[in-house]
Amino acid sequence: MSYDYGEKNGPHTWVLRYPNAGGTKQSPINLNTTSMRLDKTLTPINVNLNDLQKQILHVKEHNFSVEVKGCAVLSGGPLTSEYKLAQFHLHWGSGNNWGSEHMINGISCPAELHCVFINTKYGTMETAITYSDGLSVVGVFFQLGKSSNNNNALKRLCTLLKTTKKGESKDIQPMLDLNTLLPNDLSRYYTYSGSLTTPPCNECVTWIVLDEPVVMTIDQVSCFLFLFMIKQNFFRTLLKK
């Protein structure tokens, strides 16, 4: 079954074909800092990206993802198991000032990176999404900054997207340095139990949304806008406050 972000098959229709989309723990949400509880027992998350073997870019009609092979591991924070990186992708909007799926106190960012990790005790994505602790997704906000702060991984990703046709896949050589897509501070984050933000919308995700943003340039935002000829937003609207 197909879905998109338009009028015909957009998020408001998903529950008709994907019952999980009507659940009580759906994502994304507005992260309201005034109603949060500080948990001093939580440790910083640990992201070990030293054992990557391959990155494969998949370009679809309206978006893209990068499949990751190897043993990049997420642990710590609210997690009680180790999680293995499966893929990462971006969400962005039809303008330069909004596009992130999550908001903080009602404020959006131009884009949001999602790094999708699978709980190692479940092995496969198909199995993991059937458990409440099956996945952990690390969300990273991107904010606009000066070209002097040009992120090399984003710059290369834009170049790759310009030379890869929709429907094609391409090995990324040399591999992107994923550490540059993460902020320096991994100790400040928002965490909650939620769902996949795209169908089948299973409520299987421990969300870890990092507080510190990463800088992207206006040219990089424009890259995503024009490559995919955006006339609509490619993010799910907020499900609750």
UniProtKB/TrEMBL annotation:
Gene Ontology CC terms: cytoplasm
Transmembrane segments: none
CDD domains: alpha_CA (cd00326)
Catalyzed reaction equations: hydrogencarbonate + H(+) = CO2 + H2O
Cofactor(s) listed in the protein's UniProt record: Zn(2+)
A molecular function (GO) term: zinc ion binding
Primary localisation category: secreted
SUPFAM superfamilies named in the record: Carbonic anhydrase
EC number, as in UniProt: 4.2.1.1
Highest taxon of source: Eukaryota
Sequence ranges assigned to domain Alpha-carbonic anhydrase in this UniProt record: 1-241
Family of the protein in this entry: Belongs to the alpha-carbonic anhydrase family.
Name assigned to this protein: carbonic anhydrase
Species per Swiss-Prot/TrEMBL record: Schistosoma japonicum
Native organism taxonomy: Eukaryota, Metazoa, Spiralia, Lophotrochozoa, Platyhelminthes
